[in-house]
Write a structure and sequence with these properties.
Elements: H1 9-14, H2 16-21, H3 33-46, E1 60-64, H4 67-70, E2 78-95, E3 106-124, H5 129-140, E4 146-155, E5 166-173, H6 186-195, E6 197-198, E7 201-202, H7 203-216, H8 222-238, H9 256-264
Antiparallel strand pairs: 1-3, 2-3, 2-4, 4-5, 6-7
C-alpha cells in the first residue's frame, strides 16, 4: 500500500510521486515519459492560436476548476474568477492514487461536455511557460485521464466589466480513459467521497477544499454544495466514525475568514 504523503512543488519538479509509483501495481496505469512529453509539446505548439487579442505579450492562462483553485502550485502573476462554456464540473474521474486506492477508488473532479463552469484563471508569465507546464503535466497528466484543451473563457461572471473572451489551458475529461466514471447518482458519489483516501488524503477533503476555495472568491456551486450537504447528512445518520478525514465544517456556516484559513493549511497537497 502506498503511504500517504504531502506533495510539494519540489516533488513535482523532481517527479517524486511518479518515481514512488513505478514499483507498485499502479505503474501500468502511468503514461510513459515519452507520451507525457509529446502531450506537453503539443499543448505548447497550440498555444500560439490561444494568445489573447489584447496584448498579453505571450503570457498564457490556466483554468482551474478543482484543486488548482485552492492550491495552484504554479508561478502566476494574476488570478481571476473566470468561466468557461461548453463544459461543466463534476465528479467524473475515479482516483486510484491521489484520493483513493486501486481496490477502493475515490472520485475527483473533471470537466465534461455541456453547460458551463466557474473557476479560477491563473496567468503564467511568458518566460516560465514551459517550466510551469511541466509541473502541471506531472500533477494532472500522470495517467492520461485528461485532455489538455485551450478553451474560451470570460473573466468574472461573464457579464461584468471585462467580457472580452480569452483562451486558457484546461484539463478536460478523457472519456476513453478507464477511470472515467460518467454521471453517477449523488448517493454513489457521496458514498465514495465519505470513505475513500489516497496518497493526497481523503476524498471528502478534496470536495470541502474546492467548495471553500470557491467561496473565498465569492463563487458558489450548487452541485458541490448539494453533495457536501448530503455527505454531512450521511455522517449524522450513520455516525461520522465510519468516514475518513477530519470533522467536516458545515458549508452553510463557512464565512470568508474561515474559508481563507481553511485553505491556507493544506497548500502542500493536491
Amino acid at each position: 500500500m502506498l503511504a500517504r504523503m504531502a506533495i510539494t512543488r519540489q516533488d513535482l519538479e523532481s517527479d517524486r510521486l511518479r518515481a514512488s509509483l513505478c514499483s507498485t501495481p499502479v505503474a501500468s496505469s502511468l503514461l510513459t515519459e515519452d507520451a507525457m512529453e509529446r502531450s506537453l509539446r503539443c499543448a505548447l505548439a497550440e498555444r500560439a492560436d490561444a494568445d489573447g487579442p489584447d496584448g498579453d505579450s505571450g503570457d498564457v492562462w490556466i483554468f482551474g476548476y478543482g484543486s488548482l483553485i485552492w492550491n495552484p502550485m504554479v508561478v502566476h502573476t494574476d488570478c481571476r474568477v473566470a468561466s468557461v462554456h461548453g463544459y461543466h464540473r463534476g465528479f467524473y474521474l475515479y482516483s486510484r492514487i491521489n484520493r483513493g486506492t486501486w481496490d477502493h477508488p475515490g472520485l475527483v473532479l473533471g470537466l465534461d461536455r455541456g453547460g458551463s463552469c466557474t473557476g479560477m484563471a491563473f496567468r503564467i508569465p511568458k518566460n516560465v511557460i514551459e517550466q510551469e507546464f511541466r509541473v502541471l503535466w506531472r500533477r494532472e497528466m500522470m495517467t492520461g485521464a485528461y485532455h489538455p484543451r485551450w478553451l474560451r473563457l470570460k473573466f468574472g461572471d461573464g457579464d461584468g466589466a471585462n467580457p472580452t473572451p480569452r483562451r486558457a489551458l484546461a484539463f478536460v475529461m478523457n472519456r476513453g480513459h478507464n477511470g472515467y466514471a460518467g454521471r453517477l447518482p449523488d448517493a454513489d458519489v457521496v458514498s465514495c467521497l465519505r470513505h475513500a483516501c489516497g496518497v493526497y488524503g481523503p476524498a471528502r477533503d478534496y470536495l470541502q477544499q474546492t467548495l471553500l476555495g470557491l467561496a473565498t472568491h465569492g463563487v458558489g456551486d450548487p452541485y458541490l454544495a448539494r453533495l457536501w450537504h448530503q455527505l454531512q447528512e450521511r455522517d449524522a445518520r450513520e455516525g461520522h466514525a465510519g468516514s475518513v478525514g477530519s470533522q467536516p465544517t458545515p458549508c452553510a456556516a463557512v464565512d470568508a475568514d474561515t474559508a481563507v484559513a481553511s485553505t491556507m493549511a493544506p497548500h502542500e497537497t493536491v
